[in-house]
């Protein structure tokens, strides 16, 4: 009896297409990139990523925002918060980000992404130089004080397990491409900082 063909990369060969990522980016008139916001829950990733996206959009740049919480409603609705599920979640999100950057977009990813090794794996999945790690640096205490979704209150009351910073680790980036300190600066100014960085990299036109 014939064996089922396993869906594995050693069996399925890469199907070549006529158009490639360079063609897509040229038609878009921009350079793709993946802006990867990492930090604790409530550190400000979504808030700042959203403000950056609005600025890029206003400058005529085509973007897409992948928000960790939103993706858990669909793409990753089958995953929980164990270490292995978090690793799988990272793999899926980074693959989607890669595909969107292949399509020529600037992709913003707002995602706790607590493990350094997984962020490095995400960097390795992207085209050379296109992964920009943005550390949204907010202390656990400050995040717990903000608590916009009431998650810290529940986690500290013992109602949630595997909560990042409490009973699940957060490995802060040691040399992020951009380091945003939210205790010192407001979200709007931090979004400007990100856009300035992108201008210096030639991803956003000056002016
Ligand atoms: P995350 O996406 O990291 O879980 P959110 O952006 O959803 O975080 O929530 C961060 C909260 O902190 C928001 O209520 C935001 O208004 C608030 N906040 C206060 N100061 C800042 C700042 N400097 N940068 C970003 N967010 C801030």
TrEMBL record:
Its EC number is 2.7.1.25. CDD domains: APSK (cd02027). Keywords: ATP-binding, Kinase, Nucleotide-binding, Phosphoprotein, Transferase. It comes from the Bacteria. ATP binds at residues 39-46. It catalyses: adenosine 5'-phosphosulfate + ATP = 3'-phosphoadenylyl sulfate + ADP + H(+). GO terms for biological process: hydrogen sulfide biosynthetic process; sulfate assimilation. One of its GO terms (molecular function) is ATP binding. Catalyzes the synthesis of activated sulfate. PANTHER family: ADENYLYL-SULFATE KINASE 1, CHLOROPLASTIC, BIFUNCTIONAL 3'-PHOSPHOADENOSINE 5'-PHOSPHOSULFATE SYNTHASE. HAMAP family: Adenylyl_sulf_kinase (MF_00065). This is Adenylyl-sulfate kinase. It comes from Georhizobium profundi.
